[in-house]
Each structure stands twice: as C-alpha cells, then as structure tokens.
Amino acid sequence: MIAKYGFWGNKQYHLNKMTLNQLVAAYFQYYAIQAYLLCAAGALYVSINYATAWIPNIIAASIAFFLYPLIWYALHRWVLHSQWMYKNRWTASTWKRIHYDHHQDPHDLSILFGALYTTLPTIALVTIPVGYALDGIGGAGSALASGLIMTCFYEFAHCIQHLSYKPKNKYLIEMKQRHMAHHFHDEKGNFGITNFLWDRMFHTVYDRPDRPEKSPTVFNLGYTKDVAETYPWVADLSGGLGHENPRQRRKELGIDE
C-alpha cells in the first residue's frame, strides 16, 4: 500500500504492492535518481568538451563499468554489513539510513535507494582518478558518467528484485532468488545485485538448500537488543527495537501491509 509519508508528493511506495509501471513512474520521480542523471549529463558534457581522444575515454568508461560489481560487493560486504558503523556514534545514523532500515523493511522504496551524501562522493572517488589518469578532465568526466549510469542501473535492478513479480527469464529468476535469500534467509552471503561473480570468487554465493538454518540476524544485521544496550544510537534513532520480523513489526505499528 501507499502511506502518507516520504517523497513523491508525500507518498511512500512499497514494492510488494506495486506493478512494474508504478515502479518506473516512481523511480524517475525520485530525487536521487534525478540527481544521478543530472550529474551524469554534466559529466558527459565535460567529457565531450575536454576529451583529447576517444579511445582513452572509452577505456575509462569501461573500467568504471567493469569495476562496479567489485566495488559494490566490497562496500556491501565490508561496510554495509560491518559492525563498526553502528558501534560508532558518528557513523551509526548513516548505517541506519543506508542499510539497517532497508533490511528492517526490504520493500520500502524510500529507504531502498542510497543516500546521496554517501553515494555521490563514493562514485566520484572511485571513478574520477581512473579517468583522469587516462585522459585528464575529459577522462574523469567519462568515468564519472559511466559510474553514475551504472548506479542508476543497479538501483533499478535492486527495485526489480523487491518488486512483487515472478520473472520467467532464468537469469532473472536466479538473480531474484539469491537477493531474496540475502534478505529473508541469511544476510551473510549473496552480496551482489546483478552480478554474483565476486560472491563466487570470495565463496559467499549460496542457494538456500546450502544453508538449511535461517540466520537469526537476517533482519537486524546483528544489531540485537543486547548489542543496543552497549551501542544505543541506532535504537535511539529508531524509537527502540521492535519485533525482529518486519511483517510482525508493521502489524505492531498498525501499518497496512
């Protein structure tokens, strides 16, 4: 259902109740997606006007494109699923916003998208030096544009995985199953979104039969009530810790599923 809160004209969207057409409309109205596309257009403008040769710029864009799955894997596994962020009062609120809340309510579109104050600096830091080394300002623009466009693609693919639909394509079926297992069975694996190559390389890819026992921390990422007694900042920002299961918590809060 759609509740009165958030963006898109004071509406909050829940992917388990949306159609593909509704998702597409909401996706392109979201301020972060608009910001990525606007920045990508600016980066392309810089690339076109400052590139000294096409080949180094194509290489710069390609490097950003092919490195993206590895960067996402590393950030997802060792930052978003880390413990150090919620143990530090200065990073606790960021961790809550960019990942804890998403695992608490995986279908809430408003907290599925990354926060611009974390994503834009990261994309720039990863892409601009590579592009600049290949063709100065023009190369930096090419690499940055590639990273921003890939971010838009990944965000949309992430939305699709939480959308209430059953794909028929074999690849899409596998992609959705692995991500759903990450959210609802065991969060300590299947860190990729569209690409699970690095999960295979680091031995974190799994099918549900591989791990018969459900992780007790799949929804709270290890931030339990006992942990909150020592590191209370996320709990304070969340108004306390409710039921571990998001569906039950929503019922407790009287939010329509």
Radius of gyration: 19 Å
Number of helices: 11
User: Going across the major beta sheet, what is the strand order?
Assistant: 1-2
Strands, count: 2
Largest sheet: 2 strands, antiparallel
Mean pLDDT: 89
| Number of domain units | 1
CA-based shape: globular
**What proportion strand?**
under 5%
Helix content: 55-70%
Order of helices and strands: EEHHHHHHHHHHH
Uncertain stretches of 5 or more adjacent residues? 1-6
Structural class: mainly alpha
Rounded to the nearest angstrom, the distance between the terminal CA atoms is: 6 Å
Describe the protein's architecture and organization:
With 257 residues, the chain is mostly helical. It has one domain (14-253). It has helices at residues 20-29, 31-50, 54-80, 84-87, 89-104, 116-162, 170-184, 197-201, 225-230, 233-238, 246-253; strands spanning 3-4, 11-12. It has a two-stranded antiparallel sheet with strand order 1-2. Helix 2 crosses helix 6 (116-162) and helix 3 crosses helix 6. The N and C termini lie close together (6 Å).
Short description:
The chain has 257 residues and is an all-alpha fold. The protein has helices at residues 20-29, 31-50, 54-80, 84-87, 89-104, 116-162, 170-184, 197-201, 225-230, 233-238, 246-253; strands at residues 3-4, 11-12. Helix 2 packs across helix 6 and helix 3 (54-80) packs across helix 6.
Write the layout of secondary structure elements.
Layout (H helix, E strand, L loop, with lengths): L2 E2 L6 E2 L7 H10 L1 H20 L3 H27 L3 H4 L1 H16 L11 H47 L7 H15 L12 H5 L23 H6 L2 H6 L7 H8 L4
Antiparallel strand pairs: 1-2
